[in-house]
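User: Structure please.
Assistant: Input sequence and predicted structure:
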Amino acid sequence: MRTGIALALLLLIVSAYQAFSFRNNLERDTLKKGRIVLSTGDEATFDAAKNREGSARLILDGDPGTCANLYFPSNHPEGTHLIAELALTHDPGSPPQSRKLRGIKFLNGCTDTGNDRIKKLEISILLRRANDPDVEKIIPEPVEMLRETVEIPDRSVVWIPFDVAPFPASPGYPDHVSLVIAKIRILETYHPEQHRAGIRELYYVDLDASSRRERIWSPGESL
């Protein structure tokens, strides 16, 4: 009987320690994770296996010499698109420092004079509660924050601004802290006969909500 009680108490202590440790280490663990990019793939026919292995991941590799070269138009029900984890809504700290989304910048086309540039797209910004899925064994459902359809000029550097309020203040990590995700649906290209849409790098730009200091989350930077 005593052995059973001792074992139950030990399990309770271990569970409490794991929960406490998880909350204290979540900020550190979230920041060191790599960012995920999913896409409809590089081929005409959608292949789920290529969502992770295709060239789309190259938009966050920090090298403007590489390019996400996506087939356009895709046979996927939602058309040619990619989904990328970009940044966190708050900087680490006690309490976490709230940020304000300024916009998205990207390098359009696989070269400065490329014929695979995007002409029109739909961009959605999604928020997903910050967590460590390896610990929680769950990926929280994302919530759409905004969605816009944008006409893109025929040039290599594209800036898409957003006018939104700062993210809510957080009393302590991870309360009100979210992962920012961009979903980009390609609607038109300048040269549709090429059946390609290229993006070299994707940058998330925000501001410190209090000091108004700008930050560009560089491709290749871990969260």
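Residues 7-24 have pLDDT under 50 and may be disordered.
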